[in-house]
Specification:
The chain has 2 domains: 208 residues, no CATH class; 180 residues, no CATH class. It has 19 helices and no strands. Helix 16 runs antiparallel to helix 17. The chain is globular. The two termini are 39 Å apart.
């Protein structure tokens, strides 16, 4: 009988808590999101998503790239915990006010109406309470994920309950923006109560340390910059659609993207489960290591294909059934956008390899190229093809930058070749049969 160490059992339980909460939250969030979209309709739902996306452009500034570094410092016995808590809390609070300033300045410069500015203000204010997530990082560092999960579940249930209540009383759109503030307040309060019970440093003893702040910011700057690029990459579509078209167009595009990206948790789960086994053979058998990488690419690409084909065929019916006839025209966007998964799914392997091979700067370069391609193609395609053009721009922004960087970087080039081979898996299986992953196979 296999016996596992107490340490292994502890980490396994910690990971199980995190994964279970993640999947459950995704399912609840999707269901409640559908309910909200059906109630608000394309125009109001689009306006809410525009406000969230606009503030999201600056969200990385509030986080400041401190997440992984803070967890590491909590583990380090030499770092004074009272100073770490106080310093990270204050830095993230300052970051939140910077987000508010930039969001409000930006929305004013764009000339949006006062109602839209109010929605943006509410979404931005919610970032102030996210400074309390330093407690969540502490729980992660101490392998106490269950407490962080309790706070996240409290936030999710309050948010879901509030949204359902607002729908029942036929509330105005602005109240759904207030819910965003409420859910972050609930998260902050729950984390504070749990920390008071299970933490080691009372909140009254948190102290700001300027030397530690400089050290953390110097180290986190590249991560913050990368996070900012990713945020722009993920949110710029809906911001541009609103300013080049209408809020209703944003609503239609948003529901298509929501259904298309609902599957993106799958490769994350697969990588958490299988990538450690791939890394284990990296130093031992180079050939076997590359075969395992190819298997991962093959598996994820085929999963993406199994999702993309049926969704693409029945996209119109899916949107109509799930979101209602008012959103039916989003079906065409979904039929196109779902194919982005063919790049995103195997792209998870590349993302892990970039970290493993210490190529973070390369990742920043192709993400920056992705933003440039996305913005450029949106400017070109949205005026001519509307939200369908935005969907094509998204797919191109995944493909073109990676292929460009592959010309100069061997790790990225290897993953691109493996991705292309994974698309040819049925042909390779016919050619090699059972010897597909043998040393003689290509």
């Amino acid at each position: 009988m296999i016996r596992f160490s107490q340490g292994f059992k502890r980490y396994f339980a910690n990971t199980s808590w995190l994964m279970s909460e993640r999947i459950f939250s995704l399912l609840v969030g999707l269901c409640v999101g559908i309910y909200v979209a059906r109630y608000l309709g394309p125009q109001r739902f689009g306006l809410l998503n525009y406000a969230i996306s606009f503030v999201g452009l600056f969200a990385a500034i509030a986080e400041m790239g401190l997440t992984e570094i803070t967890v590491r410092e909590f583990i380090d016995a030499n770092t004074p915990k009272s100073c770490l808590f106080g310093t990270v809390f204050l830095l993230r609070t300052i970051g939140a006010f910077v987000v508010i300033f930039l969001a409000m300045t930006g929305i004013w410069l764009l000339g949006d109406d006062y109602y839209t500015r109010g929605l943006v203000a509410l979404v931005a204010i919610s970032f102030i309470f996210q400074a309390f997530r330093v407690i969540e990082l502490y729980f992660q560092s101490q392998v106490l994920a269950k407490y962080a999960v309790v706070a996240q579940l409290a936030q999710m249930f309050v948010s879901a309950g509030a949204k359902v209540f607002l729908i029942q009383i036929k509330a105005e759109l602005v109240w759904f923006a207030f819910v965003i503030v409420l859910e972050n307040v609930v998260m902050a309060l729950t984390l504070s109560l749990l920390f008071r019970r299970f933490g080691t440093v009372p909140l009254s003893e948190w102290r700001f340390n300027s030397f530690l702040a400089k050290k953390l910011l110097k180290e986190s700057f590249p991560l913050a910059l990368s996070g900012l690029v990713v945020a722009v990459y993920m949110k710029i579509d809906q911001v541009m659609i609103k300013n080049m078209m209408t809020a209703e167009a944003v609503g239609l595009y948003a529901v298509a993207v929501r259904l298309s990206e609902a599957w993106y948790f799958i490769p994350s789960v697969v990588m958490k489960s299988l990538f450690p086994a791939v890394v284990a053979v990296r130093q031992k058998e180079n050939r076997r290591y590359h075969l395992r990488l190819q298997q991962l690419h093959d598996f994820l690409s085929m999963l993406a294909l199994l999702v993309a084909v049926p969704v693409s065929i029945w996209a119109g019916d899916i949107v109509s059934v799930v979101f209602g006839e008012r959103f039916a025209s989003a079906g065409t966007v979904l039929a196109i956008h779902i194919w982005a998964g063919m790049v995103v799914f195997p792209g998870n392997v590349r993302a892990h390899l970039v970290v493993l091979e210490k190529r973070q700067m390369v990742a920043l370069i192709f993400r920056s190229l992705g933003v440039a391609v996305n913005v450029g193609l949106n400017l070109l395609l949205i005026p001519r093809f509307g939200i369908i053009g935005a969907a094509w721009a998204t797919i191109a922004s995944y493909v073109i930058p990676v292929c460009t960087v592959a010309l100069f970087d061997d790790v990225i080039r290897m993953t691109v070749i493996m991705t292309v081979k994974s698309y040819l898996l049925p042909l390779r299986a016919l050619l090699y049969g059972k010897a597909l992953y043998a040393d003689t196979a290509v």
